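task queued by scheduler; priority normal; single chain, no ligands, no partner chains; default sampling; output format set to structure tokens
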Amino acid sequence: MLTVIGNLKGGTGKSTVAFNLALWALMNKRTVLAVDLDPQGTLSDVIRVRNEEGYSPVLDLTQSLDEALTSADRYQEIIVDVGPSDLGTMYAAILAADQVVVPVPPSQADVWSTHRFVKKIQELRGDRAKPEIVSFINRADTHQAVRESDEAYGALTMIQGMRVVRARLSQRMAFRRSFSEGLAVHELEHRGKAAHELDALAKALLMRERR
């Protein structure tokens, strides 16, 4: 399955999500290819750190959509990180995808941006069923008294044509450490809250019946 992690806005944490999802799938006995199509190259940077540190398992990486599509029969999961600074490449990846996953920080501006992104994906796919559009709250509030995450979730459920999963990733230090150290959150803190959240999200996104 080819999964695009994308958003029209920068700074939504998509590279962190792509890295952690790819390693989760790899450690759950899937064959996985990570694809970095963002000109910023953040996903490539963190995988390079991982390789330099000699961590295993090794995560395969390409920066070419054509190479990813040519190699599709060798991988069960292809996780693609795309950025809004190269819309042509983003749109090409969306058209090739089985699902587009949209990480949404809990703010009204991000909800508005997601609505625009959903409309664009629907325009690109036309009458086709794929890609499915899926979103979740990323960088959620951890304090129970703060309601922005729940409010943003409610707003997302009002956007037609998009599935919103209940699993969310919170604003946790483990996700920042994950990137700086080249390790997934479940490698850093196997029983930690971040690892638990990632496990729930990955199961919601990657463990559904194959389409």
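post-processing summary
- Residues 2-206 form a domain with the Rossmann fold fold (CATH 3.40.50.300).
- Strands lie at 2-5, 32-36, 60-62, 77-81, 99-104, 132-137, 163-164.
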